[in-house]
Amino acid sequence: MERSLLASLLCVWALSSLSAASVDVIEQCPERILGNERRQTCPKKCQQDKECGNKRQCLCDGQCGLSCVAPGRMCPWPLPPGNNFDVALLSPSPSFSALLEVRCKPGFTMHNGLDTTIRRCQGDRQWSGDEPVCTASSGGGLAAEPVLVPEVSCSLPDDDDLLSVQGSASVGSTIRYHCSSGSVLIGNSVVCPPPKEVERGHLVAVQRTEYEVGETIYYLCKKSFLLDGPNQVTCLPNGTWSAEPACRARCPVPAQRSRVIVGGEKRWPYDLTDGVVAHGENVTFFCKHPEKLCSFTATEVCVDGQLKQPSCYLDPTWLQFKLFPHRLVSEIDACDPDDLQ
Ligand SMILES: *[C@@H]1O[C@H](CO)[C@@H](O)[C@H](O)[C@H]1NC(C)=O
Ligand SMILES: *[C@@H]1O[C@H](CO)[C@@H](O)[C@H](O)[C@H]1NC(C)=O
Q1: What is the DSSP string of 145-212?
Q2: Which of 63, 313, 317, 337 would you label with 11, given CA atoms 20 to 30 Å apart?
Q3: Residue 323: inside a domain, yes or no?
Q4: What is the percent of the chain with per-residue pLDDT over 70, rounded to a whole number?
């Protein structure tokens, strides 16, 4: 098979974001297995769409292999209520290749010992497999005879040149496919889940359960909070958002009667707007040399509302501030670099 075609077949988005348990993989289709079939009929065998006439496509139909099927065909749905089991449709509609989960009620199992099975909507408009039968599992505790429970898994494409697979293939789990660069994800459309809400801010968007690739959403922070990250995020082709912005709080400056350096300027804290600095801003404090009458500096950064006071910093008293403003540590000469060795 040509590499590009193989890429197209393999790189099928297999995740329906609405259902936690849908796995729908187009893998290389098995050959039609004759004799080993529960089905009454298989549609016409094919290799390509053009062998199928204009209303049908050449699609993988489970044990029938590649067959001419009408993809719009529906399997029976809803199903009549079952004895001792519940059914749930795992795909958006009961059309060809849709998946149906059958789950026995608590305390009941199927004859293979499992309590869940998955059925697929076939080209003959029937759900795959036998009609489920759930019977009471023997008496509550452990059965006398241990039942070997086979691990039920989907088979996964293994061409890791083209795509990477995250997650386990066991029934009921969700799998994400990522195409490597150069190949493109086709098939079911990829969507992004709603972007993360931001504390102390809002998303400027209509609330939806999913967003299309390329859609952009804007973030705004509430007054006095600073946006950390871009002000917009875009839904990427792999179903994730391009960024996760956050709204960060400003920091009160833990100094009152001493100047500090903010944004390259030496200022009194009460001259700063609201006495605060923005997230990410550096604040440089003046500390006194332990023995000499000179100052050195220590810088702290405002991180989301938290600005530490450097351990060497001591806020002057009110009397010092009022009576000897020129002797405040922030106003005396800087120490000679040699004094600080
Ligand atoms: C999705 O794509 C972006 C950009 O190519 C990448 O940075 C990010 O890691 C991808 N996410 C996942 C979960 O693969
Ligand atoms: C704060 O200081 C650090 C380290 O010197 C520097 O990398 C950063 O750019 C400064 N931040 C601002 C807002 O000036």
Answers
A1: SPPP-PPPB------TTTEEEES--BTT---EEEEPTTS--BSSPPEEPPPPP-TTEEEES---S-EE
A2: 63
A3: yes
A4: 74
